[in-house]
Amino acid sequence: MFVEIADAGGVNSAARRLGLAKSIVSRRLLRLEDELGAQLVARTTRGVVLTEAGAHFRDEAAKVCAVIDNAREDMSPAGALRGLLRVAAPASFGRQLAPVLAELAQRHKDLHVHIRFNDRYVDLAAEGFDCAIRVGYLSDSNLVARKVGELPVRLYASPTYLSEHGELQTPSDVLQHSCITPGADVWNFRRGVETIPLRPHGRFKADNAFVIAEAAARGVGIAVLGEIIAAPYVAEGTLTPVLQSYDLPAVGIYIVRPQGQHLPRKVRVLIDLLAEAFATPSAANAR
């Protein structure tokens, strides 16, 4: 319970994660401090802050929790998974992840699987997730990341947009067009050993791949999309790939988790299922 309070940053958040009343968690925290003879947290209007003693005790308590989790896994029947697996995943990729997550729940009937789909980057420790699935060009962070697959991407535009604004012949033509992006992107076009980095600009930005695809299909601008996202639009003729003689780096699919944390078997099983579903030669590489 104390580890949950420390990681969640407050009694209220810990109570929600534990499924307990706030009053119960508060009483247990006070009882723990009385037993230890030390103040573990400093109460503030925004939650709690660990004292020096609390930070030390949290680290030692987390080790105990990891040992207990390992023991429980070792005592489970071969292949059986139990407990709760909390996963954060991007909403833009939910349609592709749904079969994998449903397969996990179907195979392991004693495992509770809770998934939150959100296109923002969540704080895994503070929000109580065992792991997160992230799709993109992963930046350096304090998380442990395992690559489980890749998604090919291309530049797309609607036929209507191209008829109004002209075809693209070279990557530099991108700078003359309205581009749809999640944010301050750089598009790295490749042909052979040559790489051409360009910073697109445009008036429409969104953090959801399906919103970007829909805007591109309606002629708002050009966009880089995963082939799996663009495929239905290409099939119905509302999007078409452009600059096909140039490649763009594939987007990685990763499982990320906090550093220093024991890798639970339930997370390892999820990694294996994702690697099987999105198998690529680089899927076995760990980072």
From TrEMBL:
Q: Tell me, what is an example of a GO biological process annotation in this record?
A: DNA-templated transcription
Keywords noted in UniProt: DNA-binding, Transcription, Transcription regulation
Instruction: State one molecular function term (GO).
Output: DNA-binding transcription factor activity
The record ties this protein, via InterPro entries, to: LysR-type_TF_proteobact-type, LysR_HTH_N, LysR_subst-bd, WH-like_DNA-bd_sf, WH_DNA-bd_sf
The residues the entry assigns to the signal sequence are: none
Record-annotated HTH lysR-type domain positions: 1-51
Family, as annotated: Belongs to the LysR transcriptional regulatory family.
What name does the UniProt record give this protein? LysR family transcriptional regulator
